[in-house]
Amino acid sequence: MRLRLVRSALVISALLLFGSRASRAQTLAVSGNPGLLRITTAVAGSPPTAVSNGATTYTVTTPGANKTYRITAQLNANVPAGVTLTVTLAAPPSGTSLGAVTLTTVAQNVVTGIPKNTNATRSITYQFTGNVSAGVIASTSRIVTLTLVTP
């Protein structure tokens, strides 16, 4: 039995969207783009070794309006078959992180319950995993859109 090594890469760019329905503007900012995520190793009999990147952060600021906020994440295009990209946003005080969320082209909650008067900077961690069935995938990129919304 031969194990094919998955050599795949994903370049991620973060794009931010935010609304301004409150009297004072809420904001969401990202520190930059994570580096290239490339799976290059596998142990015989095991799936390829996942790679992670926690080099970026986000800063969320919410106004004093009596509302709670949430952050959603989505991709501009799905990742190839056999690979998965997840994102984990650490929660600001009193908010709730939903942990590692598998990214798709549908907006999904990643942090909920962000209270009014929040001004916090927290970590973003991306994890890229693949299985042997993915084969060798050419380097490709995806844009992750984070959106701050009021329920």
What would you note in describing this structure?
By secondary structure, this protein is mainly beta. It has one domain. It has no helices and 11 strands. The strands form 2 sheets. It has a 6-stranded mixed sheet, with no helix packed on it. The chain starts with 7 loop residues before the first strand and ends with a strand. The N terminus is likely disordered.
Question: What's the helix and strand layout?
Answer:
Blueprint: E1 8-18, E2 27-30, E3 37-39, E4 51-61, E5 69-75, E6 83-89, E7 96-97, E8 101-102, E9 108-114, E10 119-130, E11 140-149
Parallel strand pairs: 1-11
Antiparallel strand pairs: 1-3, 2-4, 4-10, 5-9, 5-11, 6-8, 6-10, 7-9
User: Mean of residue pLDDT?
Assistant: 84
Tell me the number of helical segments per DSSP (H or I, 4 or more residues long): 0
Query: What is the CA-CA span between the terminal residues?
Result: 52 Å
Summarize the amount of helix as a percent range. Answer: under 10%
Domain count, please report it.
1
Low-confidence residue ranges: 1-9, 16-23
List keywords for this structure.
disordered N terminus; mainly beta; 5-stranded antiparallel β-sheet; 6-stranded mixed β-sheet; 151 residues
Quick summary of this structure?
The chain is mostly beta strands and 151 residues long. It has no helices and eleven strands. It has one domain.
